[in-house]
Amino acid sequence: MASQQEVIVVAGHICLDIIPEMKAVSGTLHELLVPGKLVDTGPAVLSTGGAVSNTGLALHRLGFPVRLMGKIGDDLFGRAVQDILRSYSPQLAETMVVAKGEASSYTIVINPPLVDRVFLHCTGANDTFHAADVVEDTVKQAGMFHFGYPPLMRTMYMEEGKELKAALRKAKSCGATVSLDMAKPDPASDAGAADWKRILSRVLPYVDLFLPSFDEIVYMLRRDVYDELSAKAGGGELIPFATRELLTSLADELIAKGAAVAAIKLGEHGLYAKTTSDAGRFRDIAGRRPDGWESEWLDQEYYATCYKVEAAGTTGAGDCTIAGFLAGWNTGRSMADTMKSAVGVGACNVEKADAVTGVPSWQRVRSRIDAGWESRAMALPLEGLVKVSSGLYSKPDRS
C-alpha cells in the first residue's frame, strides 16, 4: 500500500496563485487593461502553485507520505500558503521553510474568458532558497527527495548552480533517491542567460531521476536547435518537432553527465525515457528494492503515449506526470509500469481544470491502467520504436 512506502520530500518553488473571476470581454487584453479604467471582477480564487504544491499535493492525493520544503515569508501570503496546505493535511505545512522578513512568492492570474492569460509574478522567497534550507533530519527520514523549478529560483542558478549542487549533494548524502525537474527560463531574464549546460554538468552527478520537459532541455542543451525549432513553430509548440534521434541524443548527454534516468516530458504526446547502462549506478540507489530489480531498468529506452480522456485543463499536468513517475519508482515497479503510471496520473490531472483535484488514489489510477485504459495513438516521428503494450513503446530487442 502507498501508506507503507518511504516518505517523499518535495522541495523547490512554491507560490500563492491569486485568480480573480473575470467576466467575458470583447476585444483584446490590451483594450481591457487601460490606464485609469476600472475593471469589474468577481471573487478571487486562492490556490498554491509551483512544483512543491503541484507535485507534492498530487503525491499526497495518491496516498503517499509527503513532506513539503518550499520557502515562504512570514507575511499574509505565506500564511495563506500554509492554510491551503493544512486544508489537505496539517502535516504538509510543518516542514515548510518560513523566512522572517521576506516576501512570499505570488502570481496574479488575469484570465478573461476567450482571451490569452497574463501572469503578474513575484518570485519572493524562492529567490533566497539555499542549500542550508534543506533540513537534513527531514531528508534522512525520506526515501526520495524531489526538487522542482530551479530556473525560477535565483540562488539556485547563480554561480553556475553552486547552491543547487550543494542542495542535491546534501540530499544524496542523506541516502535519498534524488529527483530533479526544471522550468523553461525566460530567454530575456538572468535565468535565460545562465549557462545551463554547465549547471547540469555540475548537478546531474547527484541526480538519479531527471525529468525535464522537451522545450526546457532543448533550450538548455541545444540552444541553436531551440532557436531553429522556434522559428519553424512560428510561436507554437516545439514538441511536434521531437524526433527519436533528438530525444536519444538529449538523453544520452544527460546520462553522460550523471543522471541514471533521463525522462523527457512531451506534453499531450506523452513521455520518453532512457536509462544508464551502468549497473553500478543503479545499485547505488537500490534502497529497499528486491534483488535483481535493476534488470528492469538497466539500459532501457521507452516512449509512453498519453491515455485517452476528456480534458478540462492542463494546469499542473507535467508536475502530476512526475508525481506518477515517482509513485511508480517508490512502489518498486518496472520501468514500463512506472511510465504507464506517470502518463496515467497526468491523464487524471487534465480531467479537472485545476492543478491537482483530478488526481485520485494510487489504487484507482492503477486500476484504470490494469483494466486496459485506452491510449492515444503515437503522433510523433519516432521511427524505430515498436509497440509492446497498450500505451507503451520500446526499442526493438537488440539480440
From TrEMBL:
Enzyme kind, highest EC tier: transferase
What InterPro entries does the annotation carry?
PfkB_Carbo_kinase, PfkB_dom, Ribokinase-like
Q: Which Gene3D superfamilies match?
A: 3.40.1190.20
Enzyme Commission number(s): 2.7.1.-
* Transmembrane segment boundaries: none
Pfam family for this entry, one: PfkB
Q: Name one GO molecular function term.
A: kinase activity
Q: Which UniProt keywords apply?
A: Kinase, Transferase
- Boundaries of each Carbohydrate kinase PfkB domain copy? 35-360
Superkingdom of this protein's organism: Bacteria
Stated family: Belongs to the carbohydrate kinase PfkB family.
Q: What is this protein called?
A: Carbohydrate kinase family protein
